[in-house]
Amino acid sequence: MKPTENARHQLERREFIVSTLSAGLAMAVGPLYAQAVTNGLQISVKNGDQTAPGPRSPGGNTPIRLFLCGDVMTGRGIDQVLPHPGNPILFEGYMKSATGYVELAEEANGPIPQPVSFSYIWGDALAELARRKPDVRIINLETAVTRSDDVQDKAVNYRMNPDNIPCITAAQIDCCVLANNHVLDWGYEGLAETLKTLKRADIKIAGAGLNVQEAQKPAEFALSGKGRVLVFSFGSETSGIPWGWAARAGRPGVNLLPNFSAKTVREIRDRIKQVRLPGDIVVASIHWGNNWGYAIPVEQQDFAHGLIDEAGVDVIHGHSSHHVKGIEVYKGKLILYGCGDFLNDYEGISGHEAYRGELTLMYFVSAEPQTGKLVSLSMVPMQVKHFRLNRTSDVDASWLKNVLNREGKKLGTSAELAADNTLMLRWTLQG
Asked: Which residues contact 15 (CB under 8 A, 6 or more apart)?
């Protein structure tokens, strides 16, 4: 093939993949600022601004520390560079082998050493996790972990070889939320093997199960001297989850929300009450909304507020968007509307460049024990390159800061960039 023909062929391939991903993954749809808001915390006031000197809880109690991030998609291309690549066959409209995504990434940014170690994909994120020592590490694992060949009739299907599960334990992940639009990509057999593999790896799960009772059950973490953290996982059809994937009394599936209504909020409230003990911190991890776009639908915001007001949720961990979205602190409780993709094999795929989907954030949440109110949110900018997480440049960190400030303006939040390129959230004091 002539060089010009080859270039045209690569462009056509990338454009086709972009259209396929868009169809398959996005089917649906002077104030007062504070870094820390805690009862009994000494506040300094200057020029009408109210800011907190540092993250600590009432009475000197140590905050509960959580690590949250966006979608972790270790299937398909990433699976192929790990020590035990699975069957690469794909049934996408154009790409027929997962190795094609490796080729696209290498064409864009150079060779990826193969096989990589299990810890390779986490890159610079590992040092941040080791330094900050979060009490609970939570990710949305958006792939089936299976050898199943029961491919579902979808535009895009993700799977990772179960022998590659050490790539998740390499980051000492405590909890995988699974109520998303890829965990059942390879059928019920694939889901069963995913659940089995994660349990064998001593990773707690939420949001999917062999029946609706399992899918609705939270992951529970008892923290010495701090109480418990309960992690609930919910999925929405607006993220592209087929309604037929909903778990039932005698059928495996995901914990799928029927809608964002007040009735749904009350049902969640009742389920939380069944398991919650005094002092528990409740995290609601929700896979919702379109892949692209910064707008936050009114029904999502109302639902998030309802979960806090009515159901007693303390932290809302939203994901599905392929880029970071705005952040809100509502009555002292954190709402992440869209964390962006954290790890994926999209390198080299053109389209939607304006969103800078390769830029992502590590969200380190500090919350008051007992009350769940936000003490601080520190965000570490990362860039996915060579199927690996890398610290961003100063320019890219500033770009993320500007996005958070632009989108946060309407939500009462902003971000400040520290000398080490860490972003600190500031928010309007409420109630």
From this structure: 350, 351
* pLDDT tens, the chain, 431 aa long: 433 334 344 444 454 444 444 444 433 333 333 333 333 232 222 223 333 334 555 445 799 999 999 999 999 999 999 999 999 999 999 899 999 999 999 999 999 999 999 999 999 999 999 999 999 999 999 999 999 999 999 999 999 999 999 999 999 999 999 999 999 999 999 999 999 999 999 999 999 999 999 999 999 999 999 999 999 999 999 999 999 999 999 999 999 999 999 999 999 999 999 999 999 999 999 999 999 999 999 999 999 999 999 999 999 999 999 999 999 999 999 999 999 999 999 999 999 999 999 999 999 999 999 999 999 999 999 999 999 999 999 999 999 999 999 999 999 999 999 989 999 999 987 64
Structural domain for 101, as ranges: 3-428
Q: Which stretches of 110-256 are DSSP H helices?
A: 125-132, 166-169, 187-200, 212-216
1 exposure class (CB count in 10 Å sphere: 0-12, 13-18, 19+): exposed
C-beta neighbour count of 162 within 10 angstroms: 19
User: How many domains does one find in the chain?
Assistant: 1
Helix H or strand E encompassing 49? strand 49-51
The CATH number given to whatever domain includes residue 188 is 3.60.21.10
Tell me how far apart the alpha carbons of residues 19 and 71 are, in angstroms, rounded to a whole number.
Answer: 20
Half-sphere exposure of 353 (CA within 13 A, CB side): 6
